[in-house]
Amino acid sequence: LPEDRQLGFAVVGLGKLALGEIMDAFATARRAKVTALVSGNRDKALRVAARYGVPESGLYSYDDFDRIADNPAVDVVYIVLPNALHRAFAERAFRAGKHVLCEKPMATNVADCAAMIAASEAAGRKLMIAYRCQFEPHNLMAMRAIRGGELGAVRVITADVGRGTDPRDPADQWRLNRALAGSGSLFDIGIYGLNAARFLVGEEPVEVRAQLYARPDDPRFREVEDVVVWTMRFPGGAQFHGSTSYSYSFTNRIQATCDNGVLVLDPSMEYHAQRLQIRDRTIQMSPIDQFAREMDHFCMAITDGVPIVADGAEGMQDVRLMLAILEAGRTGRAVST
Ligand code: NDP
Prior knowledge:
By secondary structure, this protein is of the alpha/beta class. The chain has two domains: 3-130 and 293-302 and 305-311, 3-Layer(aba) Sandwich (Rossmann fold), CATH 3.40.50; 135-285, Dihydrodipicolinate Reductase, domain 2 (2-Layer Sandwich). The chain is built from ten helices and 15 strands. It has helices at 16-28, 42-52, 86-95, 110-123, 137-147, 170-173, 178-181, 185-201, 290-304, 312-331; strands at residues 7-12, 32-38, 59-60, 76-79, 99-103, 127-130, 154-162, 207-213, 227-233, 239-244, 251-258, 261-265, 276-278, 281-283, 335-336. The protein has a nine-stranded mixed sheet with strand order 14-13-12-11-7-10-9-8-15. Strands 3-2-1-4-5-6 form a six-stranded parallel sheet, with helices on both faces. It is globular. The N and C termini lie far apart (45 Å). The structure holds NADPH dihydro-nicotinamide-adenine-dinucleotide phosphate (NDP).
């Protein structure tokens, strides 16, 4: 597309996800281009800017970020910061008149989510939460197969999604810190199983139950949860059971057991490879860049009024449900949602 049909993005927080996936996704995106970087590390920002052709005039620190209001090359602020910082930067971006794409989880509590939605409305600017799997073709095909009725009624969704954490890795240090992460495995990675279940079934759960566990001698879990095993009941009769963890290696599998057969996504949420099995048929499409798709979608929502796939309400619903799951785990009681 001609450059003037593209929207300019400021990427906030040059960490693992931004540098490992998002910066490269702009090469594949058709509607989005990177025009600014916001970082606490000026040297890193200069290096990244040189590599991706971002002008020095598009570099900001967290302190002078509000100057971005004066940069007409930035339309969208993409927040890729630790979870507890999402709200403040979303509010500042809206005050600067920019649209906001925010990484999952949207925030660490419902009040912050509500404030982000209110700030978006007050500014007349759009807010989207970066649920990349909702743009991923295997996940989309699974959703269509289930909601289209091909497999009959969904009886049970099973989702096991987890990842290990290493306190020596800076990207995991804030994840184990409640003040920055808000919460642990459920908010970071269990959210994929939760969101996929809602996405596949197309309904909202009405009741959750849960158990929490961390080995008592594991210092990583003084502040945030490790293993969460939980169930959910959907109003149409589907049930869910799932797990997430920060202490054993990656699990990444979602299964829908339906009246007329079984559907499995395994892996379900890799960056560059998924596999879908519908009954005895295995589907492996060539990978697409989910980040490019999601950025392009947001651009179309901004310029062409296409409805946003994952808006603030979607992000807030997951936060609300995750807090209910943790409450159920702490109290040992079922929690109505
Ligand atoms: P990283 O720790 O690797 O990156 C976060 C960056 O935020 C840091 O590099 C730093 O950038 C900046 N930052 C600002 N303040 C702080 C602070 N107090 N402590 C630590 N970092 C700070 O994390 P990730 O990239 O893995 O995760 C970032 C966000 O993206 C999270 O919300 C996470 O949930 C989400 N995520 C989403 C994924 C997806 O597939 N959609 C996958 C992975 C993460 P700088 O040095 O430039 O200032």
